[in-house]
Amino acid sequence: MKYLKALPLWILVAVLVIFSVSNRGLVSVIFFPFAFETELPLYLVFFGGLFLGFLMAGLIMLWRSAAGGVERHRAARQKTALEGKLAAYEEQAGGQPLGEAAKTDNQSAKDVAAQSPLANKMSNT
Questions:
Q1: What is this structure's pTM?
Q2: Other Cβ atoms within 10 Å of 47 Cβ, number
Q3: Dihedral sign of CA atoms 42, 43, 46, 51 in order
Q4: Residues 66, 68, 70, 72: is their CA dihedral positive or negative?
Q5: What is the CA radius of gyration of the chain?
Q6: How far apart are the first and last CA of the chain?
Q7: CB neighbours of 119 closer than 8 A, spacing ≥ 6?
Q8: What are phi and psi of 109, to 5 degrees?
Q9: Model confidence over 82-99: pLDDT tens digits?
Q10: Are strands 26-31 and 36-41 parallel, antiparallel or unpaired?
């Protein structure tokens, strides 16, 4: 079974080896801003381009991950500060949790809304 899982990898390796053997011809590579020219096998140019592409994609992902980490850290700091403020307000309110008061206020607002003439009109239609 473990050989079956490795089968796609072996197929890829075989394709890359066949590509490398088939494209051994030399190509001229010029590095534009510099006056440097060299001849390399085509497969090295191809694999070098793939490697640079993977490297650039990895760096971009690393950059985005770091930016996300900074944002998560900032949100955690803000949450801690707001929780501290909430605790201070609860202490001023005499120990009554403000979260529970908000739930009861929300429920009483729903009760008032349900008793309004507009709600009765909409339920009758």
A1: 0.51
A2: 14
A3: negative
A4: negative
A5: 33
A6: 64
A7: 113
A8: -65, -35
A9: 998 888 888 887 766 655
A10: antiparallel
Q: Which helix (H) or strand (E) holds 118?
A: helix 117-124
- Which amino acid is located at 11 in the chain? I
2-6, 60-64, 70-74: which range is least confident on average? Answer: 2-6
Q: What is the dihedral of CA 75, 81, 87, 89, to 10 degrees?
A: -110
Instruction: Copy the structure tokens of residue 1.
Output: 């079974």
Tell me which residue of 43, 8, 10, 15 sits closest to 29, measured CA to CA: 43
Residue 5: band (very low, low, confident or very high) from pLDDT cuts 50, 70, 90? confident
Residue type, position 97, single letter: P
pLDDT, tens digit (0-9, with 9 covering 90-100), for 9-41: 999 999 989 988 988 899 999 988 888 899 999
